[in-house]
Write a structure and sequence with these properties.
heterodimer; A: alpha/beta; 16 helices; globular; B: alpha/beta; seven-stranded mixed sheet; binds iron/sulfur cluster
Chain lengths: ~475, ~220
């Protein structure tokens, strides 16, 4: 019999029952709640007179709506009344049911996908869900994690299970050494460019190969975070010593007397050598250069030394149409050099790139330099209060502020612009987030997805620049 | 949940690929803590020429006359015809809520993003998968006869065009059963509460660190 993939193992370990109609009931170990996709779930629970099945499987924190400027006044200080009600509703629901919540003024508050692992809430071998598509992030630790809709949030609250269907197995194998200045973000953007935004639909997508193993756990999180942008609800990386090391001493990690048993269990969380994948995509790490998206879908991506595509070279009429439409929205010309794109704003943050490693990478580029006068705003938004504290302990905040970037409080911020941080109509932004959809960062806003180092370099020059040259010239 | 058995309605063609959930319902409307009322803001950025605000009366806003739902022949449409990878991006269930609130009962496309596809079923909205060729044929049929209707028959798993042509589609048994009968799947899962408890007992013995840690 063929071996099992990591996904197969995680699935099997959580199977509660197989229904006659082909669907399955899967047990959920952890649910993370935030203010945007939970209110209707709590309301549904209440209307049906149900109670949460297990309180200790849930953790909540507000992130999407919270202001990232001075917030000492807490919830009451949120200016937008609709946002304020939403954050308050989360507080009230958690208080009512006794769910642990890191409220706005708690130092542990932050973006759900940064907070979960940071607290050891996400653990190898666990199932993790959240009403947010970027829950795929947590797969970086060998956890089975994916986004769900609000009805499913309610289902998990009420039953601790999900009705699911097994996905197919896809392996993305990135072999070789990554070049200097090429980061996890570039790897995942490159992968999406290769397989397309629907390339992973229906699959659990495991990332393997020497280039993935060489990445830090933070880098692997960046990669799994964007699995959903390739259509895969689930991203996965096998457990190794780095994964295990990461969980030592985290607040919700196994206690000392459980630690050895947990580690023994986690070491099995790899795909067997003879495991069968339904599809394998091989990528050579040496082919990957720093990436920049030029269009309105993450698959519209090229290397920084490339040019904006020309619809005349499209493979068919559909592709030509979508290129034309994207160029029009983005205000770009066919064949224009990527390095000629000028930026109005820069955003360093989001669940893709707001961990300490990202802060360090950006700080290393801007240190001793100044943001270009043509850039209206450059924001740095740490992913959690703890990341913020760590960065400040390392003096990174001072480096940013001296260079002319703004150092903010943790939250989703300009990633989706539900709070006051947003782009103006027609403005171009170098952003370390994960979606460049039309209007995502503000009505008429034009998003270019890049790594933290590339965003930082663009802030300094005012246009895109190959961070590899940039560092050499300094 | 709302039942779905058969439905006949006007088809609105939305001819673009990768329609994401940000496009279906932009983020500023996600601040609501309700499940209803999203219809006026469905496709807000495509439908209106200005930037929409939550809780705003949309009746006086400048509309984009080129957008399909604003054309008189598609007024009252309840079946959306779309292209590949419909509903990609954010997991927001506000997307099917908005489609439903506007009056859509079914979507027809060659492929969908997984989370959106799932969310539709929870809200009595039927996402139908036809082949690319069949979808193309329907786009051409609608172009030739704007305002035409289709009938969707879930029991028999087919879409029927006015000239009697039938297109059959696949649907998962469980989801079909829930939709046809308007069943609440939480209630169905709770019928297996003993299985869930048995699983928990076994799991607690194997991986005790996954219990009682978060408090
Ligand atoms: S940072 Fe952006 S992508 Fe991540 S959870 Fe927040 S809004 Fe979603």
């Amino acid at each position: 019999m063929a071996g099992k993939t990591l996904y197969d193992k995680l699935w099997d370990a959580h199977l509660v029952r197989q229904n006659e109609d082909g669907s399955s009931l899967i047990y959920i170990d952890r649910q993370i709640l935030h203010e945007v996709t939970s209110p209707q779930a709590f309301e549904g629970l209440r209307m049906a007179g149900r109670k949460p099945w297990r309180i200790d499987a849930n953790l909540a924190t507000p992130d999407h709506n919270v202001p990232t400027t001075e917030r000492a006044g807490g919830v009451d200080q949120i200016v937008d009344p609709v946002s304020r009600i939403q954050v308050k509703t989360l507080d009230e629901n958690c208080d009512e049911y006794g769910i642990v919540e890191f409220k706005m003024l708690d130092e542990r508050q932050g973006i759900v996908h940064v907070v979960g692992p940071e607290q050891g809430m996400t653990l190898p071998g666990s199932t993790v869900v959240c009403g947010d598509s970027h829950t795929s992030t947590h797969g970086a630790f060998g956890a089975l994690a994916h986004g769900i809709g609000t009805s499913e949030v309610e289902h998990v609250l009420a039953t601790q299970c999900l009705i699911a269907k097994k996905m197919k197995n896809l392996l993305i194998k990135v072999e070789g050494d990554l070049g200097v200045g090429v980061t996890a973000k570039d790897v995942v953007l490159h992968v999406i460019g290769v397989i397309g935004t629907a390339g992973g639909t229906g699959f659990a997508m495991e990332f393997g190969g020497s280039a993935i193993r060489s990445l830090s756990v933070e880098g692997r999180m960046t990669i799994c975070n964007m699995a959903i942008e390739a259509g895969a609800r689930v991203g996965l990386v096998a457990v190794d010593d780095k994964t295990i090391e990461y969980f030592k001493g985290r607040p919700f990690s196994p206690t000392a007397d459980q630690w050895e048993a947990a580690v023994a269990n986690w070491k099995n969380l790899v795909s067997d050598d003879d495991a069968q994948f339904d599809k394998v995509v091989e990528i050579n790490a040496a082919d990957i250069k720093p990436q920049v998206t030029w269009g309105t879908s993450p698959e519209m991506v090229v290397a920084v030394d490339g040019t904006v595509p020309n619809p005349a070279n499209a493979k068919d009429a559909d592709e030509a149409n979508s290129i034309t439409r994207a160029l029009e929205y983005m205000g770009l010309n066919a064949d224009q050099a990527i390095t000629d794109i000028k930026l109005d704003r820069v955003f360093i943050g989001s669940c893709t790139n707001s961990r300490i490693e990202d802060m360090r990478a950006a700080a290393a580029v801007v240190k001793g330099r100044k943001v270009a006068s043509t850039v209206k705003q450059a924001l740095v938004v740490p992913g959690s209060g703890l990341v913020k504290a760590q960065a400040e302990a390392e003096g990174l905040d001072k480096i940013f502020v001296e260079a002319g970037l703004e150092w903010r409080e943790p939250g989703c911020s300009m990633c989706l612009a539900m709070n006051p941080d947003k782009l103006g109509n027609g403005e171009h932004c170098a952003s370390t987030s994960n979606r460049n959809f039309e209007g995502r960062q503000g009505f008429g806003g034009r998003t270019h997805l890049v790594s933290p180092a590339m965003a930082a370099a663009a802030a300094i020059t005012g246009h895109f620049v190959d961070v590899r040259d940039f560092e050499l010239n300094s | 949940m709302k039942k779905f058995t058969t439905h006949t309605g006007v088809v609105a063609p939305l001819d673009r690929v990768n329609v994401d959930t940000d496009m279906i319902i932009p983020k500023q409307f996600l601040k609501s803590i309700k499940r209803s009322g999203f219809g006026p803001n469905l496709f807000d950025e495509l439908r209106y020429l200005d930037e929409g605000q939550p809780d705003q009366d949309c009746s006086g806003r400048p509309i984009n006359p080129d957008f399909v739902l604003n054309k008189p022949e598609y007024a009252g449409s309840s079946i959306l015809l779309a292209r590949n990878n419909f509903g990609c991006g954010s997991s927001r269930e506000h997307a099917p809520w908005a489609l439903d609130d506007y009056g859509f009962r079914a979507v027809i496309a060659p492929s969908y993003a997984d989370i959106f596809f799932n969310n539709c079923f929870k809200n009595g909205l039927l996402p139908i998968i036809l082949t690319e060729d069949e979808v193309e044929e329907l786009f051409q049929a609608v172009a030739a006869a704007p305002g035409m209707s289709l009938t969707v028959d879930l029991e028999n798993q087919k879409v029927v065009s006015p000239d009697g042509k039938e297109y059959s589609f696949e649907v998962d048994d469980f989801r079909k059963h829930c939709l046809l009968n308007g069943l609440d799947d939480i209630g169905l899962t709770l019928e297996h509460a003993d299985d869930i408890r048995a699983y928990e007992a076994k799991r607690r013995a194997e991986a005790p660190w996954l219990f009682d840690a978060i408090k």
